[in-house]
Amino acid sequence: MRIDDSKALATIRAQGRDPLSFQSQLPCMSHWHASGASPSDDLIDSFIAYLDLGPTWIAAGPPIAPEGQEVGLLQQFFADTRRRRIKGLLFGAPPSLLNGLNDARVTHSALHLGEIPHWDLQHWGKSQERREFFSQVRRAERKSVSVREVSWKKADDTASAFRSQAESLFSHWVGSRPLPPLGFVATALPFYQCHQRRFFAAYVEKTLVAFAVASPVCARKGWFLENVIRRQGAPNGTVERLLAATFAILKKEGSTYATLGMVPLSVHGASNHSHGSPLWARTLFSFCRRHLEGLYHFQGLKRFKEKLAPDHWTPQYLLAPTPIGPLELAAVLKAFANGNLPRYTASAARRIGDGGGLRDFLTYSRTSRI
To answer: N or C, which end of the chain has less CB nearby within 10 Å?
Structure first.
């Protein structure tokens, strides 16, 4: 079941407080709403976006609902999945949602997945903590890297110079990754619904060397920079230059919030244990951080975002109404593997072997032990 895009967008604009709210419109998503509403209703004030994997439904982020109604709507969602004999999960639950469930004495379990960095754009600027970041910005400036915003119409126009260069850059970027493209909320569709997004481009003369795509976080007057794509061989500091200029543009126009999305398996302080992630999961995730850096740059991604000195980090959890075990985690992996984990694993193995990824993987695995 899927709500009409215009009606879903109206709800997102009014209630979308989570960075994943715009992802509810991805083509792979279905929409669940309370039994009293119908997709044909003129106004739907709340819904849950989820990925239908048959025996498992995985909600993408918290319910998109009026503040204070999220817990009740989630309870109804889990009750409905139980009636259907379907396993219900929620990926990307913030602490506020878990605290609401605790306050309502709703039985649930949670597994720490990573953390999201947040920036208050009205306080964005140079600081001692961002010294390394702005040093890279100046380095790119000396290499004549310039940044400008590109209209969504040019991004949407397949005949425009920007779209042509951006598609070529994106294609090469996807092909250079150690892993095949991911699905679910990590689905990379930079030119999907261009009219709802914003595009920022970095150039050296007339050559596009990087671009960023920002999706709205409407109810927070903010933006989620979900795709930041860099050309191989671009001058050092290009991405820093792109992000610094993008943040400055958004700040100047009055936006108050920005994020670059979750860093998987990231740990800051003791917050990751506050909701009782089981020992088996903490052990597994620790192993992945140490030994799988060559496949997904967990630590590199974390270090890069730390250079921007986020104002704060928010833990993210996998949430379920029953205890979370390896089968629930496997369902999440299946979601990111575009619905077929064995096929994705085989494709990844071929990609690693054919593209030199095995060498990179072994190099990262060795250095992670030092």
So the answer is: C
